[in-house]
Amino acid sequence: MSRIGRLPITVPAGVDVTIDANRVTVSGARGTLERTLPAVITVRRDGDVISVERPTDATPHRALHGLTRTLVNNMVQGVSAGFTRELELVGVGFRAAKQGNDLVLTLGYSHPIRYTPPEGITIEVPTPTAISVSGADKEVVGQVAAKIRSFRKPEPYKGKGVLYRGERLRRKAGKSGKAGKAR
Fold it and tell me: Which domain-ending residue is among 34, 64, 80?
């Protein structure tokens, strides 16, 4: 039995879960999320507890069991508490600003980068070198944070770029200049 798949999901107060065959809809304070789940996995609700069950111990069913439970749990957590990814800008002159709903990044290129977030995603700039991406859908929050990071990925020599908060870079030593010369 899957250690993750067999865990029950408790539904907090204020969250409404509707299960229709293999379609799950979760509504809460932060919005509504819908997802079509694999037809072979059974999702049941008993009061305030959601359970996920698989038909057999076959490899494809075992693989989908934990995945389905995690997807439903992320939907419940997203509409009740939400998800946040924090980014940091490291580099001289690197800064972020908010103009209306858009994020404007100055990352050492000859032009500023303007990024418009998708529907349901909130981007905040508490300081010029910090960005906070938040929303109800964990998958979309991660995609937006990865997209912002891709504008200037951290490089290993000086450590400059857009990093996730708490990310540790593996630094490389640069050229020594005299190492390759033999006299």
Answer: 80
pLDDT in tens, 108-134: 999 999 999 999 999 999 999 999 999
Q: What is the 3-state secondary structure (H, E, C) of 78-125?
A: HHHCCEEEEEEEECCCCEEEEECCEEEEECCCCCCEEECCCCCEEEEE
Residues of the domain holding 144: 83-164
Residues 160 and 89 in one domain: yes
31 lies in some domain:
yes
The answer to whether residue 181 sits within a structural domain is no
Q: Residue 138 contacts by C-beta under 8 Å, 6 or more apart in sequence?
A: 74, 77, 78, 83
Segment 29-76, tens digit of pLDDT: 999 999 999 999 999 999 999 999 999 999 999 989 999 999 999 999
Count of all residues that appear for the chain in the document: 183
CA triple 13-138-28, angle to 5 deg: 25
| Residue 48 belongs to a domain | yes
Q: Average pLDDT over the chain, rounded to whole? A: 93
Residue 108 corresponds to which tokens in the numbers above? 């050492």
CA distance 89 to 144: 15
